[in-house]
Amino acid sequence: MSGYVSSIKPLSLPPSVPSNSRVLMLFGQLEKLNRESMLVDPEIARQITAKILHLIQTQEKTRKEIVSKGSSGMEVILATLEVSSRGGRRIGVFVSKGGTGILLQLVISASKESPPSEEVMLQLHSVLAKVGPKDRKFGVKARLNGALNVTVNLLKQNLQNYKLLLPCLLVLQVCLPSAVNAVSLGKNGVVELMFKIIGPYSKKNTSLLKVSLDTLGALLKSKTNAQRAVVHVPILLHIYQDWHRNDTRHRHILIRKGILGCLKNITNIKLGRKAFIDADGMRILYNTSTECLPVRTLDPLINTSSLIMRKCFPKNRLPLPTIKSVFHHQLLRVPAGGPVAQLYNQPLGMDDVVDESDNNEDAEAENDMENEVEEKDHHAGNDDIETDINKLRPKETHSRPFEELKIYERFFMELSEDFQVMQYTFWFNNTPKSHRPIVVPTAQALPPKNPTAAPLQGECPHPAPVPALDLDTINITKDQDGCGDHTHSRPHPGAGLEQELPPILAGGVAARLGGEGEEMLAEDWAEEEESSEEGVLHVPDTALLLPLHDPDLYVEMVKSTSSVPQFSEVAYPDYFGHVAPTSREHILERVYGVQRTKIFQDIERLIHPNDILDKVVYDLDIQSCPVVDGGESLKFNSQFESGNLRKAVQIRKFEYDLVLNSDINSNHYHQWFYFEVSGMRVGAPYRFNIINCEKSNSQFNYGMQVLMYSVQEAISGRPRWVRTGTDICYYKNHFSRSSIAAGGQKGKSYYTMTFSMTFNHKDDVCYFAYHYPYTYSTLKMHLQKLEALRTPQTYLREDILCETLGGNSCPLLTITAMPESTSNDQICQFRNRPLVFLSSRVHPGETNASWVMKGTLEFLMGSSPLAHSLREAYIFKIVPMLNPDGVVNGNHRCSLSGEDLNRQWQNPSPELHPTIYHTKSLLQYLAAIQRAPLVFCDYHGHSRKKNVFMYGCSLKETVWETNISATSCELHEDLGYRTLPKILSQMAPAFSMASCSFVVERSKEATARVVVWREIGVQRSYTMESTLCGCDQGKYKGLQIGTRELEEMGAQFCVALLRLKRLTSPLKLRNHAHLLDVESDLTETRCKGSSTPSTYLLEDEEASFMEEVDYSAESGDEPDNDPNTADPHDNHLSDSESNNHRDSLT
User: Fold this and answer.
1) pTM above the 0.85 mark?
2) Banded pLDDT at 113 (limits 50, 70, 90)
3) Percentage of the chain exceeding pLDDT 90
4) What b/e string do you get for 740-770 counting C-beta neighbours within 10 Å, with b at 16 or more?
5) Which is catalytic among the residues 694, 899, 1025, 1047?
6) What span, in angstroms and rounded, lies between the C-alpha atoms of 77 and 89?
7) Which of 128, 360, 860, 905 is least enclosed, having the fewest CB within 10 Å?
8) Burial class (CB in 10 A: 0-12, 13-18, 19+), 1010
């Protein structure tokens, strides 16, 4: 190698080069190597520079000549550095040796020359632009030693020197992630300087313009700088229009995107949004984006334009007089400082104020913060994980004296029953019937009135009779007295509902309110009504396919159900019943561009306001009659059990904005919906927008569809909920969410869930729901029918655990097997069976939990050998509906106390949370008598994850997720808590072990799962979450979940308990060993620990919707200092969802 170096002839250098012949030769060799950098080993350059360094260090004269004015020696060295900086590893070594500091000092030294050497400055900044990004503290160093100001002055003095501008701007970009630098540069006039560089369309210097726009965009992330740029908004819009018009071949997309990026950052502040609107920015971006739509490669421009327009869309409040629920339930005791007290202490009109201010607008760091040098790494750890080991251990003492708990002994008669009288009489609750009249579906209710049946007290009668349904294809019979002929024939065994089934009549029990609230029978009513000539609706006989459903029994159950609005109507789906479809319903594939299309239609409301009808067609806040419009609008109704729709506004001929009602005694929790629609036109493209959703993401973005029930389909022999809707998406809208409803957070918006729909039947009545409805009256009906399935070998008892705030009873079921005889051994075995405690439906909107519970109950009461073995193995205590009031009144999450009952388990109030108080008391009683359950499981539904999975509690796995230190003794834990989920993952196709988590979070410390684990000492304490959407693994991959799969999950949970029994007591069930095969890796799991990593995810959270453009962003949401800092609470999508939805508006 030395021979190669010596063979290079020295170049003829200018006279300014040092006269020392050896140094001259070395610089000549170095310059030649720079030109041949791609061909020569960098080791040669390293040897040459080492020799130059030696000469400089040993010869003072040589050193002075190299750095003297006019010398090109420094230029050759800098050129060598620039060439060497192409290797990332070498840059890292250079930075670690303090190279950036030396270069910055050279900038200061070179600036002191008069005039500074342009070539040296050019090369210095070229090297710094490459080296700076590798030095995390580069921006701070440049500011503190003054090099940043030198670069700014260099820019100001060389605005026409495009060759020098480019590296200087690149250096500024490297410095701008520091908020202090951004503010300092703004004060130094750099924002105004950038507007002198950028300009209209030109084919020259496009690289410089691109870098200038990127630099300006980075500067404008500071709100202080954005304020300075507000006056330039019209200029930016004009420049963008010019580039849009002239860049016809789309070669400069990055420049156009850079202009939009500047506008995006300016409009993060209120003044910027106002300037954008005043400059007609909405129309400009709308028109340019519309012209870009046919070109797929221009999607980044369309996405950014859409984001800007949505952000600048004037914030509106919801079209409601108040965001508080339209219904109110007076509590006997309102805790001071509680949510209800805070809610109703708000002055009128103050609960929903539009807030367009910017978050922390004046919180700029205007002064130098030296601690910025000591920047801390942002870890992705979750600070919600419990780190107090004492809170992760079971409590040693019980919080309540046993004398206080003895009253709950009566709910455990099976533990003391001697069965000496084998003709054991089971007490099964028959809820007393109310005399409140209930209107059931009849022919005269099609299409439904608004409300569907007789008017409630305080409402006016309808101004005109509602036209009857066209039932030409349906056999209708009518008696003279108005009562239908109840005779009907059953279909032959095996006949499917797809066949024409002989219809039956649903008459005989319809009633309405009389003068003093007395019940008027249908016969009396028929004599008074002008519509008495209309027929009674025929419904299919589904008894063979729905053994637990009885329409007449359902009506009887409704009569004894108490609701705050005093519902007097029955929804058709709840009356007819639901038969799961035989075909699979696939997860909807998202059409490319659907969200963009919907958003542009929303933006058109502002651009073309004359096209908007803005006509209220349904409003629970106004107790007056709807306007009769001659059939030009749809008719809506939600005044039935579990119904939720507060207002419907017709926006365009076939488009409606829908507003959901808050949970009673609350001003938020908008997610569950269930409403009726009629008066539709066949084939018309209807669009429905639910505009006050609250969660930042939804499975509606990942293929979930809404549920629809068609009455025409039902009476034709297909009574079922079906997944429906196209062009479904979920995104942030322009309706401002009050900081009162958002927990004090300002600048928040609601979200829109939109879907399109075409109807297939004329004069149909259709129901839409968030998920398969399951009402409280349905539960009572199912419990009555289950009691009829009891055999002499089955022990079944229903107790009333307590009465709710709304006056509804909370049932408690006990299910096990009767002892084989009255011998002492059999009685002892009966009493000593381990207990399994199950609960469900604490959140009313999670109806899938009730369908899973239905599957569990049907399996437990079944006649199969498995069911019999299960009853022999355990005593089941089941609370199938923890929140009846919330279910009845159409709440999504709360009870009538206005609180989430699953956050009250630590200290429940007997007055405000009776179902939780008494359920916990049952468990405390069991713990006090040393009979704590082997398994506790609370059934839930999950709105933002797929599959079925469990959350459990583990001291060890929680500690693993944190950085706290603990000894091996402190972390000693039996791994049995993983056994049941592992069993389920092996036998239940919808269950995903990978989605399970056993981490205890602070925010969940008052939930059933954590409290039962910690206070009752139940190691296997779980929340079982069922998806509202579908599955992305296993047998059901790519399918939306239905009631069949949910009920199957409930049954498979029972079978899993049998396998768990084999593991916990292997000698007990030898006779049923063929039913209880257990996979060998379960034992390995117990011995070695988990082979499946714990996937931490909050119970109510899911990964953010990964779009190229963040449609969750709005004013005040973006951090000012470091836009690249990720939210530590964000979780990542599965690969499939990430790949399918990375496009921003698809």
Assistant:
1) no
2) confident
3) 52
4) bbbeeebbbbbbbbbbbbebebebbbbbbbb
5) 1025
6) 19
7) 360
8) buried
Q: DSSP code of 447? A: S
864 burial via Cβ count (<10 Å: 0-12, 13-18, 19+): exposed
At 527, the amino acid letter reads E
Query: What residues contact residue 1060 under an 8 Å CB cut-off, 6+ apart?
Result: 934, 935, 979, 980, 983
Report for 398-407, 462-471, 606-615: range of highest mean pLDDT = 606-615
CB 721 within 8 A of CB 708: yes
User: Which phi and psi (to 5°) does residue 768 adopt?
Assistant: -120, 140
Average confidence score pLDDT of the chain: 77
Residue 58: which H helix or E strand, with range?
helix 42-58
* Nearest residue to 628 via CA among 641, 615, 643, 640: 615
Tokens of 345: 């202490």
Q: Tell me which residue of 828, 539, 867 sits closest to 712, measured CA to CA.
A: 539
Distance separating alpha carbons of residues 837 and 958, to the nearest angstrom: 24
**DSSP 8-state code for residue 1039:** B
Outline where 247-399 has alpha helix (H).
253-266, 270-278, 281-292, 299-312, 339-344
User: Tell me: the pLDDT tens digits for 729-778?
Assistant: 999 999 988 777 666 677 789 999 999 999 999 989 999 999 999 999 99
Sign of the dihedral through C-alpha 53, 57, 62, 66: positive
User: Where residue 354 falls among pLDDT bands split at 50, 70, 90?
Assistant: low
How far CA 109 is from CA of 64, 120, 234, 928, 1027, in Å, comes to 14, 11, 41, 81, 66
Q: Which amino acid is at 757?
A: M
| Known active-site residue 1045 | no
d(CA 384, CA 1131): 14
Strand ranges inside 1028-1074, DSSP E = none
Structure tokens at 867: 């069911």
- What is the separation, in whole angstroms, between the first and last Cα of the chain? 59
Question: CB-based contacts of 284: which residues, under 8 Å, 6+ apart?
Answer: 237, 240, 241
Q: How far apart are CA 966 and CA 1049, in angstroms?
A: 38
pLDDT class of 970 with cuts at 50, 70, 90: low
| Cα 1146 to Cα 1132: distance, rounded to the nearest angstrom | 19
As a whole number, mean pLDDT of residues 1043-1062 equals 95
Amino acid occupying residue 836: V
Q: For residue 849, what are its two tokens?
A: 């939990």
782 pLDDT tier (thresholds 50, 70, 90): very high
* Lowest mean pLDDT, pick from 217-226, 470-479, 928-937, 1136-1145: 470-479
Give yes or no for a contact between 942 and 1097, defined as CB atoms under 8 angstroms apart. Answer: no
Cβ density class 904-934: b for 16+ within 10 Å, e for less:
bbeebeeebbbbbbbbbbbbbbbbbeebbbb
* Long-range own/partner contacts, residues 341-344 (CB < 8 A, 24 or more apart): 343/665, 343/666, 343/667, 343/898
Cα separation, 854 vs 871, whole angstroms? 16
Phi, psi (degrees; rounded to nearest 5) at 634: -70, 155
In whole angstroms, what is the distance from residue 881 CA to residue 782 CA? 12
Closest alpha carbon to 220 in 246, 198, 245: 198
Show the DSSP H helices in 797-941 as ranges.
Answer: 824-831, 847-860, 865-873, 884-888, 914-928
Residue 695 identity (one-letter amino acid):
K
| Whole-angstrom distance, CA of residue 187 vs CA of residue 200 | 26
How many other C-beta atoms can be found within 10 angstroms of the C-beta atom of residue 274? 16
Q: Give, as one character, the DSSP assignment of residue 1014.
A: I
- Nearest Cα neighbor of 575 from 852, 717, 781 is 781
CA distance 40 to 33: 7
Tokens of 886: 């919330």
